[in-house]
Amino acid sequence: MPDGADLPAGTTPVLDVQHLKTVFRVRGGEVHAVNDVSFALGAGELLGVVGESGSGKSVTMMSLLGLLPSPPADVRGGTVTFEGEDLLQLPLDKLRKVRGGRIGFVFQDPMTSLNPVFTIGYQIMEPLQEHMGLNKSAARARAQELLELVGIPGAAQRLNDYPHQFSGGMRQRVMIAIALACDPKVLIADEPTTALDVTIQAQIIELMKDLRDKLGMAVIWITHDLGVIAGIADRVVVMYGGQIVEHAPVKELFRNPQHPYTRALLTTIPKISGERARRLTVIQGQPPILGDAPTACPFRDRCDVAIPRCSRENPPRYDLGHNHDAACFVAKGSQHAG
Amino acid sequence: MLDNAAKPSKPLVQVRDLQMHFPIYSGLFRRQTGAVKAVDGVTFDVMEGETLGLVGESGCGKSTCGRAILRLYDITGGEVAIDGARIGKMSQGDLRPLRPAMQMVFQDPQASLNPRMTVEAIIREPLDEHTKLTAAEKEKKVGELMDTVGLNRRFAKRYPHAFSGGQRQRIGIARALALNPKFIVCDEPIAALDVSIQAQVVNLLEDLQEQFGLTYLFISHDLSMVRHIATRIAVMYLGKVVELAPRGPLYEEPLHPYTKALLSAVPEPDPALAQTRERVVLQGDVPSPANPPKGCNFCTRCPAVMDVCRQIEPTYQEVRPGRFVACHLYESTGTADATAGHP
Fold first, then answer.
1. Which of A70, A90, B222, B255 is 20 to 30 Å from A269 by CA-CA measure?
2. What does the pLDDT read at residue B341?
């Protein structure tokens, strides 16, 4: 893919990832977790990343910021351009200025990503003092503002509370407050609502929508839940076997999915309204084991429209028009026929 | 009894005012200072051959309820009858011969299978415990069970770690089926699985139900999957069932304000619908079951709360044929007071 091609013409990306490759060295071989992943993030947009566990969605985002321990992880190639610099080439001290400063990160599990022995206030103030050079009282005032922003009642008193004194939903709000502390340009949220109940999930999604309107940052939202994506994303990237298999604006993707995996995924989830299917459609088989660099389509064994070419070559991402692309020979073929 | 005579099948499981309280001990002498009321007065029937869905958020007591029905706990109060046998106060020894008829499939297939036993040994264990079959008969039965749940017989000598999540869940299901049970409690059997694998396991459960005439209590927090598999659905909140209704009416026209909020919070995989749909976003969190609010348990978050809700606990009653609700909005007596208190 040419640089920034998945963005609408005329926009400059805030974050541009090209040909990213991450390999884990394990006993008895390698795991190719991320294979040639390219995408761009426009200013102020929300990019949804969907995939099952093991599809490489979290590893991709961790690789961007060098958050993976090396060894075993090894980022083998690619570029990540953020504010004119390649994050993969930055020395650690400069990278630390970016992490938690201009790029914020919200992790999946609010129970384990907060330090239980420090107060919430301390944990929110830490990046403020570190990255923005605020003194203690200014940092405290800002921390209180942030807690109010994410909708925690009694913010001033709660700064002195410890993580265990907050409920799951409240802890995730605190995590979001920490990620937002230094006015990031990009917020990466890795399954921010997966550990939460549906009613709490609805609260966090409303909060994120509000915050985007107020602060105008770009967001990468990783999830396995297509329902969440439908409600919140502008564009969607579908990952399978460590690769991006389909990319499209959200409405286009749900109306007109082109990759067989996306199509199968959309039919396999039961709906809460409308006609009830007598039987669920299943995707047969198991996700692939990523022992080698891909030489064939990762979905071919479970695909119902696979052709012989699928096991000989790994399909590149074909442009299908309308800012939509899919890594599938069959989707490309039918596009030309139609 | 709560059921109307029009129902074609008879109840297999009857749960009456089931209570499961866990004591809290504190202070120097570890005196009991309170109790977590995990299940606090639950009443329902599970009909023969049906799937009753039990839904609710985490901490609402749905798993505890499932375990208490099978007497994996010594219950605090109430009565449970399975297939006519009243097991609520039975001793564990007396219960043992009845165990084959009631089985359980657990949430986490990683944790519920012994990592040091082969698949064959895991599936054979209930046969060892409860039957007098010979070794050859047992081996044959294990093979048949593996075929039934779609596991390759060649893998009988392997250990659980060699299997994927979906396959491990199949091992758990095979073990539950070993003694030809009538009633199976499925405690979030698909929660730990990926979307594409969930459908495989749900279809398997449906096939087995048809084949063996099983009755399920299907515990889940996934409302769209429950809509697919369950015939009737009970919604729990803070230890109580707030609404119980057949599948169709419940999803088309939920009555209890909590059910309404819960359904509207489920994200729909359709961007056009997601924009137009009206959402009820509940404020706040679920109160602690150790210290539930006075009156209705839902009064702290209810969008339609009235004065009476903070004072009197609503009764769980049949408001339409087959539909049970515990809410003052639908109570026939005291409606006048309720409307007066709510301008």
1. B255
2. 38
Cβ within 8 Å, pair A227-B269: yes
Contacts across the A-B interface (CB distance below 8 Å)? 123
Give me the sheet containing A29-42, strands edge to edge.
A29-42, A13-26, A73-82, A85-86
Question: What span, in angstroms and rounded, lies between the C-alpha atoms of A109 and B265?
Answer: 20
pLDDT at A9 over 90: no
Q: Which ipTM was obtained for this model?
A: 0.77
Find the CB nearest B251 among A229, A268, A273. Answer: A273
- Is residue B5 predicted with pLDDT exceeding 50? no
Q: Which residue does chain A place closest to B271, by CA atoms?
A: A230
Check A254 against B266: CB less than 8 A apart.
no
> Which residues from B are below 8 Å from A152, CB to CB?
none
What does the radius of gyration of chain B's CA atoms come to, in whole angstroms?
22
Q: How far is CA A208 from CA A144, A150, A203, in A?
A: 18, 9, 9
d(CA A106, CA A221): 9
| Prior bond of A71 cis (ω within 30°) | yes
Query: pLDDT tens digits for B257-279?
Result: 999 999 988 888 887 777 777 77
Which residues numbered 101-140 in A keep a CB inside 8 Å of some CB on B? Answer: none
For the domain spanning B11-340, the CATH number is 3.40.50.300
Residue of B nearest to A272 (CA): B224
- DSSP count for chain B of H helices, then E strands: 11, 12
Do the Cβ atoms of A241 and A299 come closer than 8 Å? Answer: yes
Q: CA–CA distance from A190 to each of A59, A113, A179 (Å)?
A: 10, 12, 12
Q: How much is the mean pLDDT over chain A?
A: 86
The verdict on A153 touching B (C-beta cutoff 8 Å) is no
* Contacts A277 to B, Cβ<8 Å: 228
Task: Please identify among residues 260-279 of chain A the ones whose CB lies closer than 8 Å to any CB of chain B.
Answer: 264-266, 268-273, 276-277, 279
**The pLDDT of residue B58:** 82
Yes or no, beta carbons of A283 and B225 under 8 Å apart: no
Record: contact A205-B57, CB cut-off 8 A: no
B194 and A281 within 8 Å at the Cβ level: the answer is no
CB of B249 closer than 8 Å to CB of A294:
no
Chain B touched by A287 (CB under 8 Å) = yes
Contacts of B298 in chain A (CB under 8 A): none
Q: Do B281 and A203 touch (CB under 8 A)?
A: yes
pLDDT for A153 equals 82
Helix/strand number for chain A, H first, E second: 11, 12
**Region B166-184 average pLDDT:** 93
Domains of chain A and CATH, by start: 100-233 (3.40.50.300)
Domain boundaries, chain B: 11-340
Strand B31-47: give its sheet, edge to edge: B31-47, B11-26, B77-82, B85-86
The answer to whether the Cβ–Cβ distance between B196 and A268 falls below 8 Å is yes
A 175-204 near B (Cβ less than 8 A): 197-203
Give the residue from B242, B265, B214 showing the smallest Cα distance to B49: B214
Evaluate whether A7 touches A13 at the Cβ level (below 8 Å): yes
DSSP-derived pairing of the beta strands B51-55 and B215-220: parallel
| A135 three-state secondary structure | coil
8 A C-beta contact, residue A82 and residue A98:
yes
Q: How far apart are CA A57 and CA A228, in angstroms?
A: 16
